C-alpha cells in the first residue's frame, strides 16, 4: 500500500520506518521485562536468562497464531483489573491529597507534553492492531471496540499514575520506574501482607 500510494522508493523508505517501529517496540518491552525481573524479583539471575525465557514464551505464542495471544489477553485482563482495584482500595488509607499540590507551578507547555505522551503511549500501540482488524472474523462494532479498548488502556494508565501521585508523591512517581510494584509493597493490612512482602525480594 505504501509503495502504491507514495511510489517505489518513498514507499520502501516509509515501510522500513514502519518495520523499525515494531523492532523498537519489541526490543523495548523485552528489555523492560528483563530489567524488572532482575532488579526487583530475581537480582542474582542474569538478565539474558530472563529475556531468553520471555522471548521463548512470545515465540511460542506467535507460532500458535494471533488467536492464541488474543485469548491469553482475555484471560489476563480480569487479573489486571482486579489487581488495580485491590491496589486502589488497599492504599486508600495512605492517600494524601497534598501530594497533588502545587498544580500551578508547572507550565502549560510541560503539561501539554505530558498529556501528549500519555495519549500516544496507549493509542500508538494500537497501530499493530489496525493491521489485523481487516482480517478478524467478527466485523460488527469493530471501530467502536478499538476506541473503547484504547480508552480503557488510557484509563488504566491514568488510574495508576493518579494512585502513585497520591501515595508516593510527584518526585517518586517521576523517578521510580516500577511505581506500581512499589505501591504493591506499601499495602499494609494487619500483619499478613507485611510478612509476605520480603518474599518478593528473596534472591533467585
Task: Give structural notes.
By secondary structure, the chain is mostly helical. The protein has 10 helices and no strands. Helix 2 crosses helix 3 and helix 5 crosses helix 7. It is globular, with a radius of gyration of 20 Å.
The class by helix and strand makeup works out as mainly alpha
Number of strands: 0
Give a quick account of the main beta sheet: strands, pairing sense, barrel closure.
none
Low-confidence stretches: 194-204
- Cα distance, first to last residue? 49 Å
Q: What best-fitting shape do the alpha-carbon axes yield? A: globular
Percent strand = under 5%
How many helices in DSSP terms? Answer: 10
Q: What's the alpha carbon Rg, rounded to whole Å?
A: 20 Å
Would you kindly provide a brief summary of this structure?
With 204 residues, the protein is an all-alpha fold.
Topology:
Elements: H1 2-6, H2 8-41, H3 47-63, H4 66-90, H5 108-124, H6 127-132, H7 142-168, H8 170-175, H9 179-185, H10 192-196
Can you tag this structure with a few keywords?
204 residues; mainly alpha; disordered C terminus
